[in-house]
Fold these 3 entries.
Entry 1:
Amino acid sequence: MQLFRASIAHFPKQTTQFSDDIAIFKDGGLLIDKKEIKDIGDFDTIAARYPAASVTDLTGKWILPGLIDSHLHYPQTQSIAHYGEQLLTWLENYTFPAEMQFADSEHANTIAKVFLNQLLKNGTTTGFVFTTVHKSSCQALFNAASDIDMAIVAGKVCMDRNCPSQLTDCAESAQADSASLIETWHNKGRNRYALTPRFAPTSTEAQLAALGELAQQYSDVFIQTHLSENLDEIAWVKSLFPQADGYLDVYDKYNLVRERAVFGHGIHLTPDEWGRLGESGATVAFCPTSNLFLGSGLFDMTAARANKVHVAMATDVGAGTTFNMFKTYGDAYKVSQLRNDPLSPLEGFYLMTQGAAIAHGLDEEIGNLNPGTIADFIVVEPRFDELTSLRIQQDADFDDVFFALSILGDDRAIAQTWISGNCCYEKSSGNNELQ
C-alpha cells in the first residue's frame, strides 16, 4: 500500500453547500492499494492506522480528484486556435476537413495518443469524447485509453445530412456501427459508450429514430450531442424540424433526453427546455472557453440551478481554447460575472469533479477520493513559477489556490496525474508521452 502526504481537497458527497461540504486536509494522507483508494484523512491518523504503508511525501502540494471533462472532440486536437469563425462556418472551414483525415486509421491512432497526452498533462483523467463518423476513430481512442486503464466515454459521430459526403453515414449504418461498438467496448474495462449524433441539423429523423432505438435497447449507455449553442443553429433546427416544439424536443421525440444524456452548451434555452432538462436528469456541459471563442453566448448558470439541471464543466476542444480545466473555470467565472452571478471557486471545482461524476452516475468510481473509488487523482504544485510563488501563499486556503490557478495556472501546475493507481504523467520526468 502507498500513502501520499500532501494537502488534500475533495467533495465526498453531492451538495449545493460547497463551503460546508468540501473535505480539506491541510496535512493529509491518501492511502491507495493497487488501483483503489483505501483511506483518506489527516496524515498522522492514516499513518498510525497503516504503519507498513510506503510513504510518498508531497508536502507543499495538493492532491485532488482527477478532473472530468464532460464534452470535447479528440479529432479537433489539430483544429484548436484557428482564427475567426462562429459555429457553422467553424464546422465547415476547420472541423470537417480535420475529421476527414480520420479515414486513415494510423492518423486516428496518432492523434488519439496526442489527445490523451494533453489530457494527462492537464490533470484530466476522464473525458466525454466525440470521435468521427469513422468507426475506427472510436476504436483508436478506446484502445489508447485502455492501455493506461483510463475512464473514457466516447462514441462514433453520426451524420447523414448537411455534411461533406466523406463524413456521411446513414440511419442503418449509424445504428449498426454504434451497436457493434457498444457490444465491443461498453463497460469493457473502464470504457463506456455514448450514442453520438453530432447535432440535430446533421441527422435525419430516421437516424435520430435509429439511435433512439439503441438508447432504449441499451439503457445504460450514454448519449452526447449539442444543444442550443448558437442562434443561427437554432433557427436552422427550426427550419429542418418544423413540427418540433423546440430544439430539445427534436431529441426528446426520439428518446434521447434522459439520465446519462449530456448536451453540450445549452446557451439559448427556453424556460420549458430548462424545465424538461431538470425533470429528465440529463446534463448540460458548460463550455465557457468555446462559447466565448466562437461568440456563441453566455451560459445561464442561474437558470440551471433554478431548474435543478445537472451541469458539468467542459473544454469543448477544439473550439475550446485550452485542455486545462482550471483555466476553463477561469472563463466560466468571467461568463458568470457578465451575468452578475459569479461562480464561486468551490462550485467551479465541484463541476469538474464530484458534481460531474454525480451528473453522469459515476461517483462510485470517479470524481472524489472516497475509499472504494478508483485511484484517479492529481498532484498540483500551486507555486510553480515566480509569479504564482508570489501570489499564492504557502498556507493559502484551497479556494484561493484554485482561483489563482484558474487565472494564472496552466499545465505547469500539474506535477503528476495518477490513473488506476499508476502515475501516468509526471512533470519532472522528461518523458511523459504515450508511445
Entry 2:
Amino acid sequence: MSTLQDVAREAGVSSATVSRVLNNTGKVSAATRRRVEEAIARLGYRPSRVARRLRVQRGRSHILGLMIPDIQNPFFSDVARGVEDFAYDHDYAVILCSSDEDPRKQSFYLNIMRAESVDGVILPPIPGEQDLLRELAEREGLPIVCLDRRADDLALDTVVVDNRRGAFEAVDLLLRLGHRRIGFITGLPGLSTTRERFEGYLVAFEAHALPVPHHLIREGDSRYESGREQAEALLALPVPPTALFVGNNLMTLGALEALHRRRLPVPEAISIIGFDDFPWASSLNPPLTTVRQPGYAMGRRAAELLLRRIAQPGRPAERIICEPELVPRASCAPPPPGPGDSNLPL
C-alpha cells in the first residue's frame, strides 16, 4: 500500500506539499498540484480513514453527498453529471447513492454520509423522510439542497423546474390539436413533482373551459413497468383515450411498449407526450414530443447552492425555479375520427 511519502517521492515534492494538496490548504502552484495528483493516481494512494477524520476535525472533508432515486433515469444521470462537474471545478468530490425511492434505503445512505463527514448533501426528498432531514439540517447543521422536489415543511435551499407550466403546455398542445380524451399517467404519489404536474394537467382543461376526464387518470410509480401497465389499463377501456400524457421518461417508454404491443400507430391512432426528454427521444419512430428539463444545469445550480450554504450557513433559504421546454416532435396529431374526437362530448 502506497504512503504519503511514496507520493512525495514520485512527484518530486515534500510530504508537506502532498498534505497541502490533499487538504486543499496553503499555496500550491497549479503545475505542482497536477504533478501530485498524477502521482496519487499512478500509485493508487488512498489516505487512511483515521488521517482523513483528523483532517475533517480541523476543517472540511471536501466531499459532497448526492442522492438520486434511480441512476438509470436519464434525467438524474444529467443531474449527477452537473453536480459532479461543478464540484470537481471547485475541488470537491462526490459520493453518489441511489435511493430507489425507498425511505429506508435513503435513511441508510444519509446516515452513512453523516458518518463519513460529508460537507453537504443534495437530494430529491422522499415522502416520510422529513423528520430525518429536519434533524440533519436544523439540529446538526448539515447543509442540504433539495433537487427536483420540494420539502414543503422545511426551509431548505431548493432547485426545481416549473412542473405546472411544463404539464400545462403539454396538455394545452393536445387540446389545441382537438383531443379531449387525454389519459394521464402520474408519477409516484406524495411527490411535489407529481402534484404539480397533475395541477398543470387540470389547469389546461380549465383554461379551455372543458371538463376534466378524471376516469382517464392513472397513478404510476415513476418506473417503466407502471407506465406500461397503466397505459394498458387505459387502452383497455371501452372508449380509450386518443392521447396520453405521461408523467416521466421511464413511464413514457413503458407506455410506448403498450402501444407497440397493441399495434397502435403513433400519432395516427393515438398521440403521446412524455414529461422529461432523453437523448434518444428524437431517434424513436416517430420522434417523441417531450417536456424537457434542464437536468445538467439543475445539477450545477444545486451544487453551487450547496457550496454557498457551506460557506454561509446562516443565510436565508433560496429557491431556484428552472424553466421547462416543450419539445414538439412527431408523436402528436389531431385525434382520429370516432368516439372521443373533438366534436363529441366526453
Entry 3:
Amino acid sequence: MLSRSEHIRELLKLYFIMGSVNCRLSPADTLLQAVNGGITLFQFREKGPGALSGAAAVDLARQLQGICRQRGIPFIVNDDIGLAEMLDADGVHVGQEDEPAAAIRRRLGADKIVGVSAHTLEEAQQAVSDGADYLGVGPVYPTSSKEDARAVQGTQVIEQLRRSGLSIPIVGIGGITADNVTPVIRAGADGISVISAVAQAPEITGAARHLLHKVITSGRT
C-alpha cells in the first residue's frame, strides 16, 4: 500500500485546474473529456473576468464534484476553504496570502489534501513546516490563465527545492504544454498542473492523454 506522500505523488501526475471561464466547451463536458484522458486530480478554480459567484458557483462546484466522485478523481477547491467545508471536498489549494496549512488542516481534518503555492525556498520550507501535503511551484513558463501570476521562474525553483533536500511532493504550474513538460519533471516535479493545455485543447481527451504520457515517460536525470 502506498504511503500518503507516495499517493499524493501519483495524484499530482496530471492535475487539471478549471472553472467556467477557462472552458471552450461546458465545464461538465470539459471535465468529463479530461477524465477520459486520464487526469489524476482536479481543482475547481472559479476566478477571473466573468466568473460565477454565490449560488451559481456552488452549483457548478457540486456538478463537477459529482463527476469526480463518479470517476474516482479527488476534487480540490482553490482558495475557498468555506466552500471546501460545505462540499466536503477532498482538499483545498491555497496561496501565500491565504490561511497557513496548519490552520486549514485543523478546519478540514487530517484526511484532507492541503496544497500550497510556493515561489521561494523559504515559502516552501514554511509550507512543509505547516503540514502541507504538496507544493504548487511556478509559474514555470509564461501563462495567460492567471491574471495574478507572478514572474516566470523556469525550472530553477523546483531544482533549488530538491537540492535543498525537500522531499515533499511538488507539482509544476504555469504555461506547461506537451512541448515543455520534460524539463519540469526532470527538475524534480512529480507532475504538472494545467489549465489551458487541456481546457482549450481542440481534442480534450487526446490532449490529456498525451500530457500524461509525457509526464510518465519524461523521467528524471
